Amino acid sequence: MNVNLPHEENRNIVSIGNSYSYFMDSIENIINDINKFIMIITPIMIYYVNIRNHM
């Protein structure tokens, strides 16, 4: 019983590490998507604001 405990604990730590890195990857992907969205939207917004100011 005592021999198995450290092994189980290590497996839990590894799975926590894996889900953490997966979580971080997901956040990174979301941030990248938001950045792409902003890069696309910002020029359009500026364009519309300029048009409205000229009217």
What are its keywords?
55 residues, mainly alpha
How would you sum up this structure in a few lines?
Keywords: Membrane, Transmembrane, Transmembrane helix. This protein has one helix at 4-54.
Give structural notes:
It is a single chain. With 55 residues, the protein is an all-alpha fold. It has one domain (1-55). It has one helix at residues 4-54. It is rod-shaped, with a radius of gyration of 24 Å. It starts with a helix and ends with a helix. The chain crosses the membrane at residues 34-51.
Main sheet properties: none
User: Any idea what the radius of gyration is?
Assistant: 24 Å
Q: How large a portion of the residues is in β-strands, by DSSP E?
A: under 5%
Structural class: mainly alpha
- Mean pLDDT across residues: 84
* Count of separate structural domains: 1
> Termini distance?
80 Å
* String of helices and strands: H
Principal-axis shape: rod-shaped
Which residues sit in consecutive blocks of at least 5 with pLDDT less than 50?
none
How many strand units?
A: 0
Task: Produce the secondary structure layout.
Blueprint: H1 4-54
